[in-house]
Amino acid sequence: MAETKIDNGVNVDALLAAREALKSAPDAAKFTWRAACKWQNGTHSKSTIQGFHGLGQEQKHKTEFSFEADHPEIFASEDLGATRVEIVLVGLASCLTAGVAAVAQNRGIQLRSVEAKLEGAMDIQGILGIDSDVRNGFDDIKVTFKIDADASKKDIEALVAQSQKRSAVYDCITNPTNVTVEVA
Amino acid sequence: MAETKIDNGVNVDALLAAREALKSAPDAAKFTWRAACKWQNGTHSKSTIQGFHGLGQEQKHKTEFSFEADHPEIFASEDLGATRVEIVLVGLASCLTAGVAAVAQNRGIQLRSVEAKLEGAMDIQGILGIDSDVRNGFDDIKVTFKIDADASKKDIEALVAQSQKRSAVYDCITNPTNVTVEVA
């Protein structure tokens, strides 16, 4: 029987080589990610992403990525972009999804499709300042994966668990991070 | 001297009316924000946002917003979208920026321009699994605002401080949130 080549499009060999290389050059593992945001009008803003620092030098995405954010019409805004909390859900969804693909590649599991649906509960009494006991952010977030792959339910659940374990955004949301805000 | 009308494009009257209305209907303040994510190939995924729940019923953005995420070429990926952690920075930047506009409107301060630059430090030894003492997410995030407005430096700093105090994404990043992940 011919061996079937597993290909989820993730270059795991390159990632494992990078891991080996960075073990002896930990300074190169220090990254700085950046975003710039420009207020447009009202609650509408436009953010862009292109440059970052890593592997000891300045780096650049091939293209500039841009993101519009706004409030919906029910908040008396123009709805010209997603809300900021929805953008955070996108970050979490796509981080866990990429993790599933990378872990599946490393474990020799062929994926056919991966879909994630996220729901974040939020009581807006917090951001409106109605009740100071209500937090501004999400009360909780629920992620539901639907994965079609050449693997048992148990192996698929293990993929998802490992993706959580290595996810930068999952860590960022479930654990506190220090944020300093300054006016230039 | 004619009174100059302050207009940052934020309908503060509508927001204050909503605050009053929700005080007597706290169930309507319970929102659910959603995102859906579909794996494309490798570390590339596409997320979409449209429906949400709030004010006691299903709601919908005027249009569907879509977001591509990927890893850069230095991680042996195709760089077809921003990284997930950069997307989180976009959420934070645009949340604080909208807050500045809303608070300025409420305080009668005319804004001319608001720009935010964000830097998030991350040691990728975490996500690569090199050192389990290194966290996966950001070590810290620095936000620098440049604001041109009809106000003193002190009043501008107070605007930014109030925006932080009411920001959903600032709360989400600086405080822990419970995330449940399931496989359907």
Structural notes for this entry:
The structure is a homodimer of 184-residue chains. Chain A has helices spanning 12-23, 84-106, 153-165, 168-174; strands spanning 30-41, 44-54, 57-69, 111-123, 140-149, 178-183. In chain A, helix 2 (84-106) packs across helix 3 and helix 2 (84-106) packs across helix 4 (168-174). With 184 residues, chain A is α+β, with helices and mostly antiparallel strands. In chain A, 30% of the residues lie in helices and 35% in strands. In chain A, strand 2 (44-54) and strand 3 (57-69) form a beta hairpin. Chain A contains four helices and six strands, in the order αβββαββααβ. The termini of chain A are far apart. At the A-B interface, helix 1, strand 1, strand 2, strand 3 and helix 2 of A face helix 1, strand 1, strand 2, strand 3 and helix 2 of B. Strand 5 of chain A pairs parallel with strand 6 of chain B, so a sheet runs across the interface.
